[in-house]
Design brief:
Layout lengths: L6 E4 L2 E8 L6 E6 L4 E6 L4 E2 L8 E2 L2 E2 L5 H11 L5
Antiparallel strand pairs: 1-2, 1-5, 2-3, 3-4, 6-7
């Protein structure tokens, strides 16, 4: 069962799950990017579309996010100017 808000592809279009039935084989309401709503779409007709990653690709490998820079900035902001 897909969660509400899941980004999905239907044919050559992309949309989000905005409703679903509670059945053995659930059907979904999909809101497409242009605002059109498709009702009672079968799960087998949908493809989950992953969200684009905010991390950058370096040499084909996802570069891990670093918190070090943020920590340094916070220390600078919290530093006592009289020291």
């Amino acid at each position: 069962m897909l969660k509400l808000g899941t980004r999905v592809g239907y044919g050559d279009q992309v949309g989000r799950v905005v409703g679903r039935t509670i059945e053995l084989q659930p059907k979904y309401d999909i809101m497409l990017a242009n605002g059109t709503i498709l009702s009672y779409v079968r799960e087998v007709d949908l493809v989950v579309v992953p969200l684009p990653s905010e991390r950058s690709l370096v040499g084909g490998i996802l570069e891990p996010m670093s918190m070090q820079r943020n920590d340094e900035n916070e220390e600078e902001q919290d530093a006592d100017p009289d020291r």
